Each structure stands twice: as C-alpha cells, then as structure tokens.
Amino acid sequence: MIEEKDPILLRQQLYNDIWEISVAGVAKKYNVPYAKMIKLCKESDIPIPPSGFWTKLRSGKPVIKTPLPDSLIEEVALPLSSTKTRIQRTVASKDSFDQKVLNQDEISDRQSMIEAPTNLPVHETIGATEVMGASTFGGVKQSVRSSESLSFLSEEEREKVLLLAVGMNVPAENSKVHKKINAYKAVIKDWNKKDTKTRGAQRSYKNFSNRPPFLAGVISSESLPRIFSILDALFRQIESLGGSINDDLSLQIRNEHVSIDVFEDQDKIKHEITRQEAQALIVYEDAKRRHSWASEPKIRKYDYIFNGRLRVSIRKGKYFRDTDNSRIESRLGDMLIELYEESEAVRIEREAREETARKREEEARVKEERSNLYNEEVERTIALENEALDYEKACKIRAYINAVDNASCQNAFNGDISAWIDWAKKKANWLDPIVSREDELLGRREHEKSEEQKALKKNRNLWW
Predict the structure, then answer these.
(1) How many other CB atoms are found less than 10 A from the CB of residue 164?
(2) Which of 34, 186, 289, 297 could connect to 280 by a Cys-Cys bridge, CB 3.0–4.6 Å?
(3) In degrees rounded to 5, what are phi and psi of residue 117?
C-alpha cells in the first residue's frame, strides 16, 4: 500500500522541459535532487542535452535536439525527497495501462542518493557523511547527498561526473591494473623491506618518526590487492574526466592536487610473550638476584593485528569505511563525487593562500617603494643643502673679489691684480653649482656631495 503518491508528469512534458531549461533547471523546478533527475531520465529513456549543447546554444551556434524515442512509458513519477517508492505507468493500449510499483529491494538498488534532512544529527558511517534517521534500505544506510552536490561545476561537467558515479564498479579480478599502481608497488615493497617495526606493533602514521609513503606501513599485504582494485576504478574514471594520476598516486583533478588516505583497522589483543621475550625476562630476573646491572626488557601489553577493515579518507574529518553490512567498494560513486568536492576545497584554499601571498607581496612592494622614495628624497635634500653651501661659498668669493677690485684695496696685493681677479672668478664659477665650471686642474666639482667628501686635499702622488 502506497501512503503518498509521487507527482506524475507526462514523459513528453518532462522531455520538453529538459530541452528547454536543462536538467538542472527541471530538477530545481520540481524540487528533485539533480542525480535523481539524471537517473530518472535514463530509466525513462528520455534523452538529455549532450556536452556543449547549452554553450553552443548561448553562443548562437546550431544545435541538434535528440528526438524523444518511442517507449511504453507514458507517465513519469517524480520522486519526493522522502519517498520510498516510485510509480511508473506503462501503456498497454490507448484505453488501458498496467501500473508497476517498485519494491523496497529495487529501490535500494536504484536509489543512489537521498536528500539530507536538515534537522537531524550527523554521524560518521560507511559514507563520507551520514544523517541519523535517514531512510535505510536492506539494513545499509545510504550516503546523504544534497541536491547542491558539485554545484561549483558547470552543468555539463556535473552531469558527466554524476553519470559516471552512478555506474561505478570495481574492475574484474583479471583486469589489467593501472600502470601508475603497478609502478608504485615497488615503492611499497622497498619501504616495507626497511621497516623495523615488529609484528604486532601498533601501526598508524603517528607511530612513525618519518611518515611512510602512501599505503606503506599501515596496510597489510593481504589488503593491498583490494585497495589497488578500488584505486584502479577511481583512477580510470578520473582520467576519463580529464584528470591525471601522479607517481605517488595522488591526483590532479581540475588542475588541483588531491590526495587520498587509506587505513586498515587493527584489533587490539592481549600480547602473548614470545620465547625470546621470556628468555630475556629470565636473564633480567637472574641479574637482579645477583645484584648485577641489567636493562629490563620492554615487552608491550597488547598486540595490534590488521583485521582487513578499510577506511578511505578524502576530505579532512570525513571517511568511508567497511562495516558489518557493507564494504567501501559499494561507495565508489560517492568517493568520486567526494574527490571532486575536495578539488573545489583545495582550489578555494589555494586561491586564499595565493591571495594572502599576493597581498603580502603587494604590501612589501609598496613598503619598499615608499622606502626607496623616502631615501631618494633624503639624498636629494642633502644634495640640495650641499649645493646651497657651494653656492654660498661662491657668493662670498665674488663679494671678496669685488672688495679687492676696489682701488683702495689693490695696494695690498703684490703682482698683477687683474690676473688674480680673473683666477678668483674662475674659482667662484667652479664652486657655483649654477655655473659649475670645470677647472683645468681640479676638474668638475661634485656639488651634491658632503663638505668632507668635497674637501680639497693635497696630493703628493700625482702622476704628472
């Protein structure tokens, strides 16, 4: 029995709306999560605009509208966010049709995303995010994805990612592993050979003085093939979307560097003393009885044994993990979406750092520019003062020349007074920064320099 009936549209009407206002527009119009709308179109055999359609349309370029193919489906039920069933009406004839209702198991298989209630507490589970109280199917809690997932992408990019996410699966056992993974196996093998930790020691990145390479030291050899299979599925989809894989198995998504962390849980069990440890204890106790010095052997109380349960962390504070009811392989689509969400977070953080660095550099440039202007102004002012002093000296010499030229003072000079006056005037012009005459012996005076720098000194080592 169906308690609440989904709103129903004619298949033709839904097709018309999608090609008029886009899939995202229709999803918003009818309050249906974007991913559900994509899947609904696929199930109802309704074609959607191809990549580049809306860009060409906006730029006035010719576009081709894919016609609606014939189908027995005449009406399409739009799923409500809290709906657990969906009705599709199929036409047997013009006058009659059969009604098909999907059972709970079919819904569990088909529903990829559930719109998150906003008033429920958040709790970590097998998905990167889980809302307690959300609808569950087959005992496995579904990941919670808002209709705003990947909203930072263009409609075409978003459609590509979500379509790939819906159909993701791990590759077959005999499939060829991604070449980057194959090459990276040697890195793990080399590191593990040098690992000095004993069997049973606790293994997490915080237990190593130097962080091991990705997947080294914190994953058992039995779990590595499974992780390689998961990474292989993700890597191939990332590359099909235009991304790339780095040598250290980190990713380039939308030109942003995105990393994945994988951990294997460990069971904590009581440590059983080994034969070597027992012998070391006997030696230590015997030394104590004989009052000899001996170092007490360090024997841990617990062992930590890998249990095969994996956790994949893509975004800080969020992770996918194995549970009793589900393995993380069932969440590959969510992982792909989470990687894209992380690429946007990385982009925002990178641009924030770059903007901070740009402002810091701009402040340093302005400060240096102002400092240079200040120093230049100081130098010009000092030069002006020095030039003014030279000019003052030149004026004094000219006043003295005028006084000497007075007939009443000429008797005080021996020799040709006119020659002396001519010589003195030349020296005044040499001192005067306005005239700045070059002297035959003294050269050109550097008026801007200080008095100490310009002071005339005898030179006893002239070469001429």
Answers:
(1) 18
(2) 297
(3) -65, 140
Q: Note the pLDDT tens digit of each residue in 249-289.
A: 999 999 999 999 999 998 888 887 878 778 888 887 778 77
What residues contact 63, with CB distance under 8 A and at least 6 apart? Answer: 53, 56, 57
Range of the domain at 287: 168-326
Pick the most confident of 93-102, 427-436, 449-458. Answer: 427-436
Bridge partners for 141 per DSSP: 136
Q: How far apart are CA 215 and CA 221, in angstroms?
A: 10
Nearest to 144 by CA among 317, 327, 320: 320
- 114 is a domain residue: yes
Q: What is the pLDDT of residues 58-107, one digit of tens each?
A: 778 888 889 999 888 888 888 765 433 333 433 333 333 333 333 333 33
* CA triple 213-218-222, angle to 5 deg: 110
Which residues are bridge partners to 286 per DSSP? none
Q: Where are the beta strands (DSSP E) in 58-207?
A: 73-77, 87-91, 97-101, 122-123, 130-131, 136-137, 140-141
Residue that is last in its domain, among 111, 139, 165: 165
- Residue 343 belongs to a domain: no
